[in-house]
Amino acid sequence: MTGSEDKRAPPHPLCFRARGVTRVYGAGAAAVHALRGVDLDLPDGELVVVLGASGSGKSTFLNILGGLDIPTEGEVLFRGEDISRANQHQLTEYRRRHIGFVFQFYNLMPSLTARENVALVTEIAEAPLSPEQALAMVGLENRLDHFPAQLSGGEQQRVAIARAVAKQPSVLLCDEPTGALDSATGILVLEALKTVNDTLGATTLLITHNAAIAAIADRVVIFADGRVREVRENADKRAPGEISW
Ligand SMILES: Nc1ncnc2c1ncn2[C@@H]1O[C@H](COP(=O)(O)OP(=O)(O)OP(=O)(O)O)[C@@H](O)[C@H]1O
C-alpha cells in the first residue's frame, strides 16, 4: 500500500469477527479459563477501547487478535480469513504484514536514537513510512536524534507508537499504553494514537483500566469473566484533549 492510497476504504466490512472464542491455560484442576466464549464483530478502521476488571481476559483476547496466541476453541476471522487455526509460520507472516503492537513499557533499544529505533522496523517492512514520517505523525519531529534516556516517558511511548505504525499496519493493538504515564502525558500519547488512527485508518484497539479514556472511542467493549459483557458505540465522541482523569 502506498502513501497516496485512501487507506480508509476497507477491503472488507469487518476487520475482526470472533465467535465462541475460548482460551484455557493449563489442564485439569489447575486449568484457567481466560476466555469463555467471546463473540465480537469489529468494523475496519475504528478506534476501540477495551475495558474490564483485572483478569477478565482483555490481554488474552488482544494476543489472539494479534496472532501471538490461538484460541483453545472458537473462530477468529481477520478480514474474512481464519487466523484461529494458523500455524506458527502463518501467524508470524500475519503479524509482520498486518499488526503493530504497543505495550505499557516501551521496549526501546537504549543505544539507538528515536530515528534508529523506528528504522529497525522500516528496514524490514514492505511499504513503510520513513522513520521521519512516522515520528512526525506522533509529534516527535524535533526529537529524531535523541536517545531514549533523553526522552520523557510519554515521548518514549510515542517513539514506540511510531515504531509500531511505521510499517503501516492494518491493525494497531495497544495494551495499557498510558498505564505508566501521568494524565497530561497520557493524553499526548492518546492524541498520537488518534492521529495514527485517523491518518492510516488502522483499526486500533486500546486496552485500559481507565474508564475516562472510553470517551475517545468509536466503540467501547467491556470484558467480564472471560466474556464480552457489553459493546456500545460512542455517540458523543471526545478528542483526547477534552478528557481528563
Ligand atoms: N500464560 C498464562 N498462563 C496461565 N494463566 C494465564 C496466562 N495468561 C493469562 N492467564 C490468566 O488468564 C486470565 C485472564 O488474563 P488476562 O491477562 O487476559 O486478563 P486481563 O483482563 O488482561 O487482566 P489485566 O487487566 O490484569 O491485564 C487471568 O486469570 C490470568 O491469570
From TrEMBL:
Q: Do the record's keywords include Chloroplast? A: no
Which is one Pfam family of this protein?
ABC_tran
Alphabetic keyword roster: ATP-binding, Nucleotide-binding, Transport
Q: Which Gene3D superfamilies match?
A: P-loop containing nucleotide triphosphate hydrolases
Coiled-coil intervals: none
> Which residue ranges does the record assign to the ABC transporter domain?
16-243
Q: Which GO terms describe its molecular function?
A: ATP binding
Membrane is among the record's keywords:
no
InterPro entries, A to Z: AAA+_ATPase, ABC_transporter-like_ATP-bd, ABC_transporter-like_CS, ABC_transpr_LolD-like, MacB-like_ATP-bd, P-loop_NTPase
Q: Which PANTHER family match?
A: BLL7988 PROTEIN, IMPORT ATP-BINDING PROTEIN
Protein name as catalogued: ABC transporter ATP-binding protein
- The organism encoding this protein is Brevundimonas denitrificans
Q: What is the lineage of its organism?
A: Bacteria, Pseudomonadati, Pseudomonadota, Alphaproteobacteria, Caulobacterales
